[in-house]
Design a protein that fits this description.
By secondary structure, the chain is an all-beta fold. The protein contains one helix and 25 strands. Strands 1-22-21-20-19 form a five-stranded mixed beta sheet, with no helix packed on it. The radius of gyration is 17 Å and the shape is globular.
């Protein structure tokens, strides 16, 4: 496992860049879909996510080298891929469109494996690193959401101390996990170090911050809300950079690869449709 010493300067994030900077943005639309929502990306820029058609049923997709492939768990109605690693392993969740049963899944070399947190009726897997460690979320019997880490079938529950609910979304090869938690009705971002230390990370001036992905350099993506709306962001070397897709009324950062490219989705201000985007670093 990789290890990194986290400097105090990283924790005390003070810089903020209000514009996208040296990146370009491309839109992503699955042919014939009503909505397209990328969720994860790896270094070869393979992107996974979910689509809906006119029937409002959720299907998964893989975009690889310009080609879209639909992903569906056999004999189940809805499939929602959430993350992909460098080997092409894909994780997500599936169900039959009715509560309360939702399962996580791992798709490896064409074979689906169900991932369920022990005793939970609802499980979703959101991130996977190159060791095969997975992070996600589950609901307990009281309806409270908790994060989890799955290492070769050994599950560890993840709860930010004092939080009402905790959500796990991304993991890197260092073993650092990012997500969000609810405290007094407000959503905050967190990073859990490989040693189990929780660190709050909020975009300066935001009323809501959610961390969705982290790479091995410690670059983080997600989204935040402020007085002007919802924006995606990239946090790199202690600097927050806002990502707003042109013509969007809201932008959401979902996945990040080792290059620092960010994939996500946005709401088109004209059509009000959910569409995908890829922000690439030049």
């Amino acid at each position: 496992m990789l290890r990194r010493t986290i400097a105090t300067a990283f924790l005390a994030v003070a810089a903020f860049a209000p514009s996208l900077g040296a990146q370009t943005i491309a839109t992503i639309d699955f042919p014939g879909a009503v909505t397209t929502a990328p969720q994860g990306i790896n270094s070869p820029r393979e992107i996974v996510g979910l689509i809906t058609r006119a029937d409002n049923v959720t299907h998964g997709f893989l975009l690889s080298h310009g080609t879209f492939t639909e992903i569906n768990v056999p004999k189940h109605l809805q499939t929602a891929p959430r993350g992909i690693n460098e080997r092409g392993d894909i994780v997500g969740q599936y169900d039959d469109g009715s509560a309360p049963t939702t399962h996580g899944f791992l798709l490896r070399q064409g074979v689906f494996q169900t991932i369920d947190f022990p005793g939970a009726a609802i499980t979703g897997v959101f991130g996977i690193n190159n060791q095969g460690d997975m992070v996600g979320n589950f609901f307990d019997n009281a309806g409270i959401n908790h994060g989890f880490l799955d290492q070769d079938g050994t599950f560890t529950q993840i709860d930010v101390p004092g939080a009402a609910q905790t959500f796990g979304f991304g993991i890197n090869d260092v073993g650092e996990i990012v997500g969000s938690y609810i405290l007094q009705g407000q959503q905050h971002g967190f990073m859990r170090t490989e040693l189990g230390l929780f660190i709050t990370i909020d975009v300066p001036g935001s009323t809501d911050t959610r961390l969705r992905g982290i790479n091995d350099r410690g670059y983080i993506t997600g989204q935040f809300r402020d007085g002007s709306g919802t924006h995606a962001f990239l946090l790199a070397a202690g600097v927050f950079t806002t990502i707003d897709v042109p013509g969007a009324s809201a932008t959401f950062g979902r996945g990040i690869n080792q290059r620092g490219d960010v994939a996500g989705n946005f709401t088109d201000a004209v059509t009000h449709r959910t569409r995908g985007f890829l922000a690439t670093r030049r």
